[in-house]
Design brief:
Order of helices and strands: HHHHHHHHHHHHHHH
Radius of gyration: 27 Å
Largest sheet: none
Shape: elongated
């Protein structure tokens, strides 16, 4: 990337309030994102005190309480797998946005007269990203969540930490740490990802409002916007992490509460659809732009093909001389077959820069934990045959 393109780089991670706070406390170095150190640090801060208290008080292994800590898979998956993945995944978001957003300029989608407007769009997103207000809202939501949902027996994941009488709920330190420290850490990271999705949506929506040089005959079938499909790869770890959290909680119900996995099929399908749609939503902002381009291009290229065909008919069927045969001799258009191909390319334009690769980048990571969940009762081979059979 040359120096001119680097001015159009934008990261949805660097320099937001959460990033600045972590750098101030030494969790993020001056150069880089400190992904591994932060993943290990927050994972251990969230999980280790819970596990240590449970082991010390005999509430980790079966035998002392009806549902020991180790049987609550959701707790361990949330803090030992999902939480670190949410942090490591920030690197993918940072890398993809800094790589792909400047390509709007590199590819010529942003015409020269629109460059300043493009810069203004980026400056606006910079201001939103660096603003403290979203994080104040997130902090308020966390405080409200803790305040309005006091620990009780209704929170099934806390029953192992009850040190009171069966009829009187009294939370031990391990449960308190889970409810007041570990869960808020995870919730804050989850909200950070949702905020970045909103930022990406606003960024692409504002870019879509510019006078982009969409090419209806582009080979990517998205007017030259096909490169944006790669953006969904930035959310692969996010999708896997959320799916793993839900699958692990459901696995506890299947193994210890007599729930059959097939009864969860509807819930899982709805979750997967909503998760994929959430991650693809930013790319959908280009639907109006591409639809308008395709509608006009079908008329324009339809007229071109028609005129080309009439000239061919007059010259080679009617054997008439042509006053102006420049259209037939234009090398960029070519013979009749190539002319028709141009129209077919326009007709095959997609409604959004979303293809199989974009969908699979989110759907496959989200599907893996659910396959593990269903494998508790259904053999893997049988399950895969059913999936491939439905896709065939």
């Amino acid at each position: 990337m040359n120096a001119q393109d680097s001015e159009f780089e934008i990261s949805l991670v660097r320099d937001d309030l959460l990033f600045r706070l972590q750098r101030r406390f030494g969790l993020i170095p001056d150069h880089g994102l400190g992904l591994i150190r932060r993943a290990i640090f927050f994972s251990l801060v969230a999980w280790l005190p819970i596990m240590a208290w449970a082991v010390f008080n005999g509430r980790a292994l079966p035998g002392t309480v009806s549902e020991p800590l180790l049987q609550h898979f959701g707790i361990h998956v949330r803090f030992l797998l999902a939480l670190p993945l949410l942090i490591v995944g920030e690197g993918s978001v940072h890398g993809m946005t800094t790589l792909l957003i400047p390509y709007f300029h590199t590819s010529g989608l942003i015409p020269k007269e629109q460059r300043e407007a493009f810069r203004e769009v980026l400056r606006g997103i910079f201001q939103l990203r660096n603003s403290s207000f979203p994080w104040i809202v997130i902090a308020a939501l966390i405080v409200a969540w803790i305040g309005f949902q006091p620990p009780s027996q209704d929170k099934h994941e806390l029953v192992w930490a009850n040190i009171g009488e069966p009829t009187r709920f009294n939370l031990g330190f391990g449960g308190w740490w889970l409810d007041h420290v570990a869960q808020p850490i995870f919730f804050a990271l989850l909200c950070a990802w949702l905020w970045r999705l909103i930022l990406l949506f606003l960024l692409l929506k504002r870019i879509a409002a510019l006078d982009l040089q969409i090419v209806p005959t582009h080979s990517d079938r998205a007017g030259g916007l096909g490169f944006l499909e790669r953006l969904t790869k930035a959310f692969s770890l996010f999708a896997f992490a959320l799916s793993a959290v839900l699958a692990s909680r459901l696995a506890h119900d299947v193994m210890y509460h007599g729930v059959h996995v097939m009864s969860l099929k509807g819930e899982v399908v709805v979750f997967l659809i909503l998760l994929v749609m959430l991650c693809l939503t930013p790319l959908m902002v280009f639907i109006p732009k591409l639809a308008a381009t395709k509608k006009q291009a079908l008329l324009d290229y339809g007229a071109l093909v028609g005129e080309h065909g009439r000239l061919v008919h007059r010259r080679w069927i009617l054997r008439q001389s042509l006053d102006d045969s420049s259209l037939l001799e234009a090398q960029e258009i070519g013979p009749v077959a190539d002319t028709v191909g141009l129209y077919e390319t326009v007709a095959n334009m997609r409604a959004a820069p979303i293809g199989k690769s974009a969908i699979l980048a989110v759907a496959l990571p989200a599907l893996i934990p659910m396959l593990v969940l269903f494998a508790i009762e259904i053999p893997i081979k049988e399950m895969l045959l059913k999936i491939f059979g439905s896709l065939a």
